[in-house]
Amino acid sequence: MKGKSLLIFSATIALAIGIMSCGGGQPPAETPAATSAATAGKPVDAATAGSVSGTIKLDGTPPRMRPINMAAEPTCARQHATPATTEDVLVGAAGALQNVIVYLKGDFSQYAFDAASSPVMLDQKGCQYTPHVIALRVGQPLHVMNSDQTTHNIHPVPVNNREWNESQPPGAGAINQSFAREEIAVPVKCNVHPWMKSYVAVVGHPYFQVIGADGAFSLKNVPPGTYTLTAWHELYGANEQSVTVGASEAKSVNVTFKAAGAAD
Fold it and tell me: Can you tell me the distance from the alpha carbon of 97 to that of 233, in angstroms, rounded to the nearest whole number?
């Protein structure tokens, strides 16, 4: 009898260890890479730091966005005053191009930056990802919400980070994730609604911005040095320019993407 009890006890312990090892079925959160610029170095000297600002525009006629058929999800369709369309190319006044990720490439390893602990929100509303494009720091929390009365499926497809795929029914709490390495940009899809897509840019420093309706950007507290200003768009790719920031210098850089058929 004692031998049988010991066998049952041993099996119970083994099962508990197995459950803890599997994490209860939840995908493990990634540990930010040790090489992130946020982990070591000195603070940027505010007395000598400069800035880089400018505008992002599209030259030419933007492509017409395609209508989305949401007949299969009437609760989503009713949330749109006009029929929903794709969001690949959104252009505002004077050719301002939205949803472009602007960031600096350079060596920031000698600097220390405050940890980015505030979560970045990605909502699913009207069967579309909102915002369409987001950017966050390496290791910064990403909170994914579901504001719809239907189940969604969040499926980022990275190259340099861990892939994950989670369903989120109506009324469920936020899905909390993060990315351990830089990547511009991670496509996000929904396996339930194939028209849903978004992009997440992961940057190892604070010098980045997602362009809004006015097409403007402003990167502040930039240490003196030479960098590559990169503007990335999901359809038009990357546009890069070298920029040198002197001590306390405010640099202006304008970036223009060309639409298909635009004259050079």
Answer: 9
Count Cβ atoms within 10 A of the Cβ of residue 49 and give its class: 0-12 exposed, 13-18 middle, 19 or more buried: middle
Q: What φ, ψ does residue 9 adopt, rounded to 5°?
A: -60, -45
The mean pLDDT value for 179-207 works out to: 97
Distance (Å, rounded) from C-alpha 220 to C-alpha 208? 10
24-81 confidence digits (pLDDT tens): 344 455 655 433 444 569 999 999 999 999 999 999 999 999 999 999 999 999 999 9
Q: Which two tokens stand for residue 172?
A: 């469920």
3.40.50.300, 2.60.40.420, 3.30.70.1520, 3.30.565.10: which CATH number matches 32-258? Answer: 2.60.40.420
What integer pLDDT is reported at residue 260 of this predicted model? 86
Q: How many whole angstroms separate alpha carbon 226 and alpha carbon 218?
A: 17
H/E segment holding residue 4: helix 2-22
> What ranges do the domains of the chain cover?
32-258
User: What pLDDT is recorded for position 264?
Assistant: 65
